[in-house]
Each structure stands twice: as C-alpha cells, then as structure tokens.
Design goal:
Helix content: 40-55%
Structural class: alpha+beta
Radius of gyration: 27 Å
Strand content: 15-25%
Order of helices and strands: HHHEEHHHEEEEHHHEHHHEEEH
C-alpha cells in the first residue's frame, strides 16, 4: 500500500512521462507535484517506488520511468476518465448506419486517426443458424453440402463419405434434416445429435455430422475476420522508432492476426473497456505494447470487439474515451437499418 505522498508522486511521474517521453527527475517531480517536499525526501520516495517495481531507472539517467506494474497501478487507481462530449459529437457523423463491412472498416480507421496508433476491430459474428440444408451427389462418395442461413447467406463444401449415396437417399436425408432441425443453431443441433445419434439411420447421422462441421467452420471463419488500420503510425512512435527488431515483431503480429483475434476474444467476455499493459494479456506478449479494448453490441448482444494498440506510454485517459465512444457508435450504426 502506498501512502498519499507516494501515490501523488507516482501519478505525477507517470503523467509527466506520458506527456514528455523523458525520464522524470526529482526536481521535475518537485515542481509538477505541487508538494512541499525536499529533494532528499523525493529521492527517498522514488527509491521506495523503485524497490516496489513501480518505476525504473533507464541506463545511467538520474530520472525514472514507469514500469508496466506502475502503469497498471496508475490506470486502476489514479485514472478517472471523463466522457468527452465534444469528442463524441465531432466523430458521431463518421459512423452512420451502413453495410456492416463499411461500418467496420470506418471504425478501424476512426480508432487509428483519433489515437494516432493502431485501430483493430473484429467483424460481427454471424449466428450459426441454418434455415435450409441440401445434399447433392457429385460423384462416388463425394457429396456437396449446401447450408443456407436465415439471411440468405450460403455456405457450401464438398465432403467425402464412407459409402456412396444415391441422390434419392440424399434428398430423403435433406428433407429429414430440414423438417427436424431447421431454425436451430449449429450448437443446438450438435447437442441434439449427441442424444439422437443412436436412433438416426446411419446415412443420415453421417451426413448430419458433415453438415455440422461445415456450419462450425463457417462460424470460425467469420470470427477470424480482424480489420487493422494505422500500423504505420507506430513508425512515428519514439518508443519504437529506433528499435527495428521490435517494429518487425509488431508488424508480424498485425500480419498474422491470429493472436489479435484471441486477445479480442478475451476482451469480449466482459463489459466495458479493458486495458492490457506490457504483455499482461499473455496473448500479445510485448512489454512495449498496451491494448485498450471494448466489446460492441447489436440488438443487445455482444457480436465483436474493437480497440487501440500502442506503446505502454500512451495517454490512457484519452484512449479509454476513444475506445468507449467508438464502441458505442459502432453499436448504434450496426443496430440501425441502412438508409434506402
């Protein structure tokens, strides 16, 4: 536990370092904190903070910089983000009801331009519900599975079966599936199949299992759509500009996108803004990076996540506002019907 004096000095140090990017010395702290403390007292408090792992001394500098642990304490206990009405009003017009793909692309660009860092957003997850299913014989032991969603979206895939089916057999199986399972989610159908597999005829059970694999694969493909904007902004960040090795790792991260998807998926499990500092997520394991993220909703359901990725030395209060506002705007835009 820190006393009020130590908390005040740590808060001042973090704010000064975020603003200037330079190690903060005791003289600067004395002026900026407004506390009537001697330089010796400030140095003693700094030594205590360093021993607690909240600040560190880079190289031979007399100043100190925050550690990831220091940023975490600052964000959790010293930051009070206020809703910026002007920021909200000035960017509300940028996200209007439109096709989901355009809203997502615009939101990624908005996050990037507002933060001057990297904006990321996952595309809305589609409900894995099927309206109609059809099996078509393509050749010996080759069947085309066609899955039609309620919104008309069509998925199809060729599957190999253990035995050859005639087209009348496939038609019978299609009719059975549509009569008993249409309108259910893939997950619900899978649960029912677990209990009904013994009573289903062998050929229908085989074909249904193939169809469920298709539906699950389609849902996974949708979930892995991540839109990234503003990667080049990191080239201008002082913390990365001289370290080509770190930059190369970061650009690899944005290219792969798989790690980003896992991180954003973690973020979607909780309401409100979440902050991962200096590799805390264990998904984006870079000490130099922080992620501020929030889920967005459509018709009351969480369908995706968005966020800002930048250096640990980022203005967290402003990033929280940007992410919070953008998540609200995306939710509004996707919940409305596009103008005709």
């Amino acid at each position: 536990m820190l006393d009020d004096r130590a908390r005040s000095l740590l808060k001042t140090l973090v704010e000064r370092y975020i603003a200037d990017g330079q190690p903060v010395g005791s003289r600067t702290l004395s002026r900026a904190s407004g506390l009537e403390l001697s330089p010796a007292t400030i140095r003693n408090v700094m030594a205590d903070l360093e021993e607690l792992g909240l600040i560190a001394s880079p190289h031979t500098s007399a100043g100190r910089i925050p550690t990831a642990r220091g940023y975490r304490l600052f964000v959790d206990t010293m930051l009070t983000a206020q809703r910026d009405a002007a920021l909200h009003a000035s960017h509300e017009a940028q996200l209007q009801a439109d096709q989901p793909q355009r809203v997502i692309a615009s939101a990624a660009q908005m996050l990037s331009s507002l933060s001057q860092f990297v904006g990321v957003i996952t595309a809305p997850r589609k409900a894995s519900v099927f309206h109609h299913l059809e099996f078509l014989r393509l050749g010996e032991r080759r069947v085309l599975v066609i899955l039609v969603a309620p919104d008309g979206d069509v998925q199809n895939r060729v599957v190999m079966t253990a035995r050859d089916f005639t087209q009348p057999e496939l038609l019978e199986a299609s009719n059975f599936v549509n009569a008993h399972y249409s309108g259910l989610s893939i997950e619900a159908v899978r649960e029912r199949l677990k209990h009904e597999i013994e009573t289903l005829r062998g050929e229908i059970a085989t074909l249904m299992q193939a169809a469920m694999q298709l539906g699950s694969a389609g849902a996974d493909d949708d979930a892995e759509q991540v839109v990234v904007a503003g990667e080049r902004n990191l080239l201008a960040v002082q913390d990365f500009g001289s370290d080509l090795g770190s930059l190369r790792k970061l650009f690899d991260l944005f290219e792969q996108k798989t790690q980003l998807m896992r991180l954003l998926d973690v973020s979607s499990r909780a309401e409100g803004v979440r902050i991962f500092i200096g590799g805390e997520s264990q998904v984006v394991p870079y000490e130099e990076l922080s992620v501020v993220s929030a889920p967005y909703v459509v018709d009351g359901q969480i369908v995706g996540t968005l966020g800002v990725i930048g250096p640990t030395r980022m203005p967290y209060e402003r990033m929280i506002q940007i992410v919070d506002i953008t998540s609200r705007l995306v939710s509004q835009a996707l919940s409305q019907k596009p103008a005709a």
